[in-house]
Amino acid sequence: MSAASDTPSEARAVIGEMVSQVRAMDPQFFDRFGTEPLEEFPNGGTAPRRKMATAGSPPAKRSLKNSTASLEEKTSKLVDYSPNAPRVMAEAYRAVLGQTESQCSDADAIDRLLNPARNLYRLETLNVGVHAPAMRALQHANYTFAKKISHTADSQDQRHRMVPGSRPLLTLADTREPDYITPMLLENNRQAKEIYDHAMGDAWSAKNQLLERGVPVEIALYVLPNAKSIRLVESGSLLHLLHKWTMRTCFNAQEEIYKASLDEVAQLREVHPQFARYVGPPCHLRAGVTTPICTEGSHFCGVKVWLDFPNIARRI
What we know:
Layout: H1 8-25, H2 29-32, H3 58-70, E1 76-81, H4 85-97, H5 106-114, E2 142-150, H6 151-157, E3 165-166, H7 184-187, H8 190-212, H9 217-220, E4 229-237, H10 238-248, H11 255-271, H12 273-276, H13 282-286
Antiparallel strand pairs: 1-2, 2-4, 3-4
């Protein structure tokens, strides 16, 4: 579609022409695939009409406020996990190697899986451990987190495809009042934050005016910034979360995903401390085992994080 085709009528004309060309090439294509608009959700409910997706209805605002409070000041909160994961993982590991508990205890199995000094897959810069039969024992430990991050961070967070999330339909999660994330750099600068907050207020005001003038909510939302808050629930196995936490507890990680990852690792430490001792950025895993300690090369942050992770503070 050309850049000029940016109005609904022009878009429909272009799509109509595309449909005509497909029919010419494959007359039976549209007989094989349904083309009518989806009027029902897969769960049997009726798809919401545009008039239901109005901005800032009291029920929507209450639910979002309660959702934020439930995070307890965290970016990411553990809401469910596999309580018997250490035992199940150890049994799975022994099953792969054909060993008995007398040959390999639960603690030894976990150490063989997670200790980078004993498992070289933990030192790889690429996530090749997913192809190792023994490492698949980590699939049996699962964790679910509720989190609140910006639209920007959410887009980066989705790079971790094997840690899927239930993300909101933005047309149904709209709020009349501004609802956004403020970067730490602005939080510590009063004048800059005032300008930022004013800009956020202007964006929401513009969106609300568009809605009041009858613009469909899915169009009006385009004026909102990428700082808009996104609330989601995300789950993953320890196998895939390990890769994410290794990459995203590095000081070079995006700020919000870094904060979320630290929250998650801290809560992992509360429920499964035997796992958390071997979780952290590449330098934390590699120190005393191999070189180079930092895998970032010229992007090295300049801080010896491995000496005091996770207590060391990230510079803004």
